[in-house]
């Protein structure tokens, strides 16, 4: 089964976009890629999870995924690497 996602951007993680305004780290949204808090002004929503823009990359070749990505077992791939390994489902 081919899993394909379109990347969508979302701005202002917290109202006002002032991340130094005393928000506790526990209140911050964590990146699905690096598991660090997202302090950037923008984040990407991929497969219903929040990501830093720099963390949305192919797990094989590490290229940045800017418009589309493919997934298998929760891992992100570029089109080339996804089809290189074949569709196992």
TrEMBL record:
GO terms for molecular function: DNA-binding transcription factor activity, RNA polymerase II-specific; RNA polymerase II transcription regulatory region sequence-specific DNA binding; zinc ion binding. Pfam families: LIM (PF00412). One of its GO terms (biological process) is neuron differentiation. PROSITE patterns: LIM_DOMAIN_1, LIM_DOMAIN_2. Signal peptide: none annotated. Transmembrane segments: none annotated. It is found in: Nucleus. Residues 29-88 form the LIM zinc-binding domain. Coiled coil: none annotated. SMART domains: LIM. The keyword Metal-binding applies. SUPFAM superfamilies: Glucocorticoid receptor-like (DNA-binding domain). Its main location: nucleus. Keywords: DNA-binding, Homeobox, LIM domain, Metal-binding, Nucleus, Repeat, Zinc. GO terms for cellular component: nucleus. This is LIM zinc-binding domain-containing protein.
């Amino acid at each position: 089964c081919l899993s394909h996602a379109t990347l969508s951007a979302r701005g202002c993680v917290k109202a006002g976009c002032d991340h130094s305004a005393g928000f506790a780290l526990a209140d911050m949204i964590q990146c699905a890629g690096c598991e660090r808090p997202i302090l950037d002004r923008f984040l990407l929503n991929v497969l219903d999870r929040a990501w830093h823009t720099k963390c949305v990359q192919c797990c094989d070749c590490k290229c940045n995924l800017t418009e589309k990505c493919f997934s298998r077992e929760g891992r992100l791939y570029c089109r080339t690497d996804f089809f290189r390994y074949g569709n196992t489902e």
